[in-house]
Amino acid sequence: MPDPEKYCMTSLTATISEIADEMRAETDRGQVANYIPPLASVDLGRFGMAIVDAEGGSHTVGDAEEPFSIQSVSKVFGLTLALNAVDAGLWSRVRQEPSGSAFNSIIQLENENGIPRNPFINAGAIVVSDILVSHYGLEDAQNELLGLLRPLSADPDTILIDRDVATQEEETGFRNKALANYMRTFGNIHNAVDETLAFYFHQCALTMSCRQLAEMGTYLMTGGINSRTGERVISTRNAQTVLALMMMCGHYDGSGSFAIRVGLPGKSGVGGGILAVTPGVASVAVWSPGLNTQGNSLLGTRALERLVQHTGWNVF
Ligand code: DON
Question: Is 4 a domain residue?
Answer without folding.
Answer: no
